[in-house]
Write a structure and sequence with these properties.
By secondary structure, this protein is an alpha+beta fold. Strands 12, 13, 14, 15, 16, 17 and 18 form a 7-stranded mixed sheet that branches. Strands 1, 2, 3, 4, 5 and 6 form a 6-stranded antiparallel sheet that branches. Strands 8-7-11-10-9 form a 5-stranded antiparallel sheet.
């Protein structure tokens, strides 16, 4: 059957096999070709240079032999005989060695030179064509031997040789050496080397003397060499050689790459320069022609191999792509959510195993999908429970803080002594600081992102020092400790930084020092130094104490969250172990660091370095709250709040401004009161029994006009952005967070003053008693539902022994119903985590096992189930280090988890039966 659309795996296999088998070879051949040519050229050039050196040595030996003959002649006794006999001797010697074409005995008498004897007849001193005789005699006085530059005489290359005659100090032997033997050697070399190679002999000026080939092509090559390689300024008047000795690479005018080997003669002339130089010139292409032939042969072999691999690839793809296509269609079913197995399959053994694995995976995916959906629903439920818990926690903390700060503000308005006013201001400042920290700790976005934003302001450092002294001096004095603050710079220095965060660092350091010191002293030293540029300053804070100290092995752990110096510390001294961790994070946010040194039983020193901007002094703007009491006199405000202390504070604020206050303990009661009377303003709490503030606000906004437009201020202790957004969406006009601040309330009253006045006008002149005929506004059967905690009232916490119940009760403010609810959630969600961890380890999914153990550790630690938390922590550490936990460690975790879940289930069973 012919396929219209071929399987995609086929071209992939074909291309991949060609790429793996052939392309690397082609690429290697392409890359190595140039490298191989370069290496070959280097080797060939070295060979040419070595050959040229050998030839030059041979020529030098020939020349040296002539010099030895010259030396023997200069010592011959023939020079003691008459000139005729000497001339005959010269003639006979020239017949024996034709290279000595002419021989002369030159003598000097009274400053004049003449020929005493000569090999030729009729020659005079002026006819022999010799160099300057005076220079020859001067050279012989220095070196005893004279060698002239090679020259062309009568068409032959000739060198004049001179030597002092031993028996006649006033004369010297002068020989014309015709270099026929050297010329013969050069021609023989030209016949032996490659036709593309040319060998030349040049003089000291670089002029051509002899050539291995006398063709026009050879002369052309020499001219190109001469033009490309002649050193500027060299020659007979120069003290250096005309060509660079050794290998010379150049490009001639025809664009051909050439190699030249230059070897100067070792025989020097009178001036100490080589008498000639041997030059060998060859073309690079001819030198590497053999390498190119080998490369072409390699490419041909690769082409043949390519054809073979292509045929092999086609055969393999037919065997492989068919089964792969079947497996691909089977896997594609998964994408469509079809997990039906594929029992029938034919193909190679490995593909059969893959098909079996896919069948097993289909079964497992189907089961896992069902479990994951269940786990997702549980996770969503747990997340909603966590959000609700944090919201309730925020509300419960803010409620007493609202009372403390509100009463502090009210007390400040009464007649007080200076000391009382100072203490109240310190109390109010500390309370506000606590609330600012609570806002950050309970903010979802900041908790999830793990970062806090710095709110920089200009402030005077004396404000911080005064707060520290007033807050901690009395605490240290109560414990009998010496408390000293040493500020090594002017306290009136201004900084531009987050004042509350620096105060938080100081409070944490000093609180720790006082907490862990039973006797002795607590000392705080502060120093300031200008940094480079002068725009920033380094503030150094050193907190020292003489307390219990920290063991060396635990010093590095105290900066970890929830870690303390000793395991027993939290029981003896209290606290969560977050102090130094927060100090470290804040210091790093401010571009600084923290250092700690401690000795057990001696004390601890903590040094914090902060990088702060230089501040600008600001005028202190302290405005007394001025309000026209007649502006709100006689206006009616409804306070919807279930906490009597909060009601007391709100009423105190409102009554001093002339409001008539009315109170309702929940949203439903507020709606009922609105049937009897209309109000100019409503202050609405969020969390209340029977009906909360959100539902009450929605129903008020659904009333007929103009009752639905009454201004509503949400006064809530819930600092979560989501909650505030929900209240605004429900219809409140603004949100004021608790603890209630007098300025914030005044600001809201001023912003909505016209709306409040308008409602007062309607109430006085237009509105009568409200008539809400729609029963759905008040009627809601859901309001009669019992709280969840009521169904858990029979839960006996004393029977749960696997939890540190005393610590958990303290943590959750003795709320037993909440504890019972959390225990039930834990048993429902985590009862089978030990089996899930074992299964993940069995499937070698260590990351999933580590995640499960981490979750179990955190959940159990939150419930103070220390036995489970410890076992889960051990397993998590083992998995983080890529080690498989032992069976005994897994059994310990399973036993602890099973024991706790059994106790929880027993209590649930008791509740259901009861």
């Amino acid at each position: 059957m012919i396929r219209i659309v071929p399987n995609r795996i086929k071209p992939i296999l074909l291309v991949s096999m060609l790429a793996v088998g052939i392309l690397p070879a082609y690429i290697y051949g392409w890359i190595s070709s140039k490298k191989l040519n370069d290496v070959a050229l280097d080797r060939i050039a070295d060979g040419i240079n070595a050959r040229s050196n050998i030839v030059a040595q041979s020529l030098d030996q020939t020349h040296t032999l002539r010099l030895k003959n010259l030396d023997l002649l200069s010592h011959s006794p023939i020079f003691s005989r008459p000139p005729e006999e000497i001339g005959q001797f010269f003639h006979n010697f020239g017949q024996t060695d034709p290279s000595f074409s002419a021989m002369h005995q030159v003598r000097n008498t009274n400053g004049g030179y003449y020929l005493n004897a000569t090999s030729g007849k009729g020659f005079t001193i002026h006819e022999i064509g010799a160099p300057d005789l005076e220079n020859i005699e001067k050279a012989l006085a220095r070196d005893n031997t004279y060698i002239s530059h090679p020259l062309i005489k009568n068409g032959d290359l000739t060198v004049f040789l001179a030597k002092k005659i031993k028996q006649q100090p006033d004369g010297f032997l002068l020989i014309e050496y015709k270099m026929d033997d050297i010329k013969q050697q050069l021609k023989q070399l030209g016949s032996e080397v490659a036709p593309s190679d040319d060998v030349y002999l040049t003089d000291i000026d670089g002029k051509l003397l002899l050539s291995s080939h006398t063709t026009e092509h050879s002369l052309h090559h020499f001219k190109q060499f001469y033009k490309a390689n002649l050193i500027a300024g060299s020659g007979s008047l120069s003290s250096f050689f005309p060509f660079k000795p050794g290998i010379n690479n150049y490009i001639d005018d025809d664009g051909e790459a050439m190699i030249a080997a230059v070897v100067p003669s070792q025989i020097k002339d009178t001036e100490g320069m080589p008498i000639w130089s041997l030059i060998t010139v060859t073309s690079q292409d001819s030198a590497i022609s053999v390498i190119d032939e080998l490369h072409h042969f390699l490419l041909l072999a690769l082409a043949m191999i390519s054809v073979f691999i292509l045929l092999l690839a086609i055969g393999l793809t037919k065997r492989i792509t068919g089964p792969i296509a079947k497996l691909t269609r089977f896997a594609s079913q998964f994408r469509l959510g079809d997990y039906q197995p594929n029992p029938s399959f034919e193909g190679p053994y490995e593909f059969q195993l893959l098909n079996d694995a896919l069948n097993q995976g289909a079964d497992k995916i189907s089961a896992d999908t069902k479990r994951l959906n269940q786990a997702l629903e549980k996770a969503k439920s747990a997340d909603r429970a966590k959000s609700a818990f944090l919201a309730n926690l925020s509300h419960e903390i803010r409620t007493p803080m609202n009372g403390m700060l509100g009463l502090s503000q009210l007390l400040l308005k009464t007649k007080l002594t200076a000391e009382q006013e100072h203490h109240l201001n310190t109390l109010l400042d500390s309370g506000k600081h606590m609330m600012s920290l609570l806002n950050d700790i309970l903010d979802f976005s900041k908790i999830e992102q793990g970062q806090l934003k710095l709110d920089k302001t200009h402030f005077c450092f004396s404000d911080l020092v005064g707060t520290i002294e007033s807050t901690y001096y009395s605490l240290a004095k109560e414990k009998g400790l010496a408390f000293n603050i040493d500020c090594g710079f002017d306290q009136e220095t201004w900084f531009y930084a987050d004042k509350s965060r620096i105060r938080q660092i100081l409070f944490n350091l000093i609180s720790n020092a006082i907490k862990f010191t039973d006797k002795g002293h607590v000392r705080v030293r502060m120093r300031r130094a200008l940094l480079t540029g002068g725009q920033q300053q380094q503030l150094t804070i050193v907190a020292e104490d003489s307390g219990i100290g920290i063991a060396p092995e635990r010093v590095a752990l105290v900066f970890d969250p929830f870690a303390q110096a000793e395991v027993s510390t939290s029981r003896r001294y209290g606290g969560t172990g977050l102090g130094l961790s927060i100090v470290k994070q804040l210091a790093e946010l401010m571009g600084g660091n923290v250092e700690l040194s401690s000795e057990p039983g001696i004390g601890t020193s903590v040094t914090v370095n902060l990088c702060l901007d230089t501040g600008t002094p600001q005028e202190e703007l302290i405005e007394d709250i001025e309000i026209d009491r007649e502006a709100f006199a006689g206006l009616h405000v409804l306070v919807v709040e279930d906490n009597h202390l909060n009601i007391l504070i709100m009423e105190s604020f409102l009554k001093q401004w002339g409001f008539h206050t009315h109170t309702a303990e929940n949203g439903l009661e507020a709606l009922e009161m609105m049937q009897r009377q209309s109000y100019d303003l409503i202050l609405m709490d969020n969390h209340m029994p029977v009906m909360d503030g959100l539902e009450s606000t929605r129903r008020i906004r659904s009333l007929p006009e103009p009752y639905c437009i009454v201004p509503i201020f949400a006064c809530t202790a819930d600092a979560f952005e989501e909650t505030q957004k929900n209240m605004l969406d429900a219809g409140v006009d603004c949100v004021i967070t608790k603890p209630l601040d007098e300025r914030k309330l005044l600001d809201a009253l001023q912003r909505f003053r016209h709306r409040i006045d308008y409602m007062a006008y309607l109430r006085r002149h237009t509105l009568k008693q409200p008539d809400f005929r729609d029963p759905s506004i008040l009627g809601d059967h859901s309001l009669n539902q019992m709280p969840l905690s009521a169904t858990l009232s029979a839960f006996d916490l004393d029977q749960v022994t696997q939890i540190d119940m005393e610590e958990l009760l303290e943590l959750l403010d003795q709320d037993k119903n909440m504890i019972a609810h959390f225990l039930t959630i834990f048993a429902d969600d985590h009862h089978d985590y030990d089996q899930k961890i074992r299964q993940a380890i069995k499937e070698n999914d260590l990351e999933q096992a580590m995640l499960l153990s981490h979750t179990l550790k955190g959940a159990s630690a939150s419930l103070c189930a220390k036995r489970i938390s410890h076992s889960a922590m051990i397993i998590e550490k083992q998995l983080k280090s890529a080690q498989i936990p032992s069976e005994s460690e897994l059994d310990a975790m399973s036993q602890a988890l099973s024991a706790l879940c059994h106790e929880i289930r027993s209590q649930q069973h008791t509740v259901d039966i009861g």
